[in-house]
Amino acid sequence: MGKTLFDKIWDAHVVTQAEGGIDVLYIDRHFIHEVTSPQAFAGLEKRGIPVFRPHQTIATADHNVPTINQHLPIQEKLSRFQVEKLTENCEKFGVELYGLGHPHQGIVHVIGPQLGITQPGMTIVCGDSHTSTHGAFGCIAFGIGTSQVEQVMATQCLLLTKPKRMRITVDGELQPGVLSKDIILYIISQLGTGGGTGYFVEYAGSTIRSLSMEARMTICNMSIEMGARGGMIAPDDTTFNYVLDKQFTPQNKEFETALEKWRALYSDEDASFDLEYHFKAEDIMPMLTYGTNPGMGIGVMEKIPTIEQMDHSKSFQKSLDYMGLSPGQSLLEKPIDYVFIGSCTNSRIEDLRIVADFVKGKNKAKNVEVMIVPGSKQVEAQAKEEGLDKIFEKAGFQLRQPGCSACLGMNEDKVPKGKYCVSTSNRNFEGRQGPGARTILASPLMAAATAIHGKIVDVREELV
């Protein structure tokens, strides 16, 4: 019997097996940020032990940082404390830190791939649920809790139970105006927020293979929104060309040696998965969420389900009440107050190029405030080098500095209570973008179209 991609990587990283079938899994890369690391560092200090292999841990400041005037002291007291504590801890324990002002600073799941720290076949963890982003490179990557952050710091290993394997295959050609964000929102809408619970997902099929690396990262990023432990895509020439010549990628003969190993990272033809799903790309249209979890999604031309369709669910009605929407309602022509383009899901240079291409020569609607937040200093610099900042400025869009920003209400970039925001981020929970904020998830292209019209439109009609 052949092995799945997941099995090949997992089995190669098992140090030993503990009682009860629990594996001791070796971790190749550990990313940390200012929110989930302070308690872990404090635990090490209390026990008087060092970070076991500090060169395999990389830190950055992203969640709490402001996205304007980053050269000035952080205004929010808690945010300032957490960022300062990260700096202090990294200095004390010898961990590399990309803090504010550093040319490598950015959202933790953006900087790893663009610097070549993320490489095929690795095990990667971070105290952040969207660590699954790195699975796009053929990695086992997943989020961990604070106690596990301490465990990795102390031992470079984790005690884990091996999850089940799922494969989701998407074949066919996407409609114009349909992006990878629409693919994953569609999948989650079909399987539900618990459809992947207990599984690690491998995405496959001709549609997935046709995607760029940045598009693949978007899909793997949101795997956990359907309850999966993580998501991954087998590496191929698209992957290898992306990682080539990155700063921390092996070079010359070392790259050739690594490449030989990477080419063996795929699921064997006779590999068995515990569960499989198949979808047709042609069935996917630009997607929108209407509720308070990513599974509450519909195509732009569809209507919100009725109470009868949702089995008279009280939580369904509660969600619609929060969003100020009604069963059977269409989201087309819905006026919007804010547009946020950013987050570890859609803040890469490809996302910004898509938006710039669409809005060039146009102006945003007067009723909408638009924030574009690059995922890293490198993305910000590239955007300026390509003149995207000028396009945004002329359109009335505000290009800010790198950070998690309005993805979550943990910093200064919040959406006011009762206001609607079309967001390229990954979650639309109650209060996610600020107390009382109403979030509608969408692709960068749909977000750009919304910004121009001041309301939700079918972006496909703009591309004719």
Largest sheet: 5 strands, parallel
Question: What fold name goes in the CATH topology slot of the largest domain?
Answer: Aconitase, domain 3
**Strand elements, count:** 19
- Classify the oligomer: single chain
Low-confidence stretches: none
Number of helices: 15
Mean of pLDDT:
96
Strand content: 15-25%
Query: Helicity range of the residues?
Result: 25-40%
C-alpha-based Rg, rounded: 21 Å
Major beta sheet, strand line-up: 5-4-3-6-7
**Content-based structural category:** alpha/beta
CATH class category name of the largest domain: Alpha Beta
Tell me the overall shape: globular
What count of domains describes the coordinates?
A: 3
What does this structure look like?
By secondary structure, this protein is of the alpha/beta class. It has 3 domains: 5-160, 2-Layer Sandwich (Aconitase, domain 3); 164-238 and 260-283, Aconitase, domain 3, CATH 3.30.499; 287-462, Aconitase, domain 3, CATH 3.30.499. It is built from 15 helices and 19 strands. The chain has helices spanning 5-13, 38-47, 77-93, 108-115, 146-155, 180-191, 206-209, 213-221, 237-243, 252-262, 314-323, 349-359, 377-385, 388-395, 444-453; strands at 14-17, 23-26, 29-32, 57-60, 96-98, 123-126, 140-143, 157-160, 164-171, 199-204, 230-232, 275-280, 287-289, 297-299, 338-341, 369-372, 398-399, 420-423, 438-441. The strands form 5 sheets. It has a 5-stranded parallel β-sheet with strand order 5-4-3-6-7, sandwiched between helices. The protein has a 5-stranded parallel β-sheet with strand order 17-16-15-18-19, covered by helices on one side. A hairpin with a 5-residue loop joins β1 and β2. It is globular and about 55 Å long. The termini are far apart.
